[in-house]
Amino acid sequence: MSYTWNDFERDYIKNHLHLLSTEERFRDILTEDRLRxxxxxxxLKAKKLIEEYLSKQSDSTK
Length: 62
What we know:
Blueprint: H1 5-16, H2 22-26, H3 31-36, H4 40-60
């Protein structure tokens, strides 16, 4: 099997991905796709943190 242009592009991206910011890496990935691979217990932890964050935000706007 020969090394193709697609192989090169994939390898190049893998080797340089760390140079991008988190925002740049996730910009084109749908939220649903990001959440799909996260274990349920981690999602529940995140839910609690988000609820606490939103609660603080709403308290500070009063």
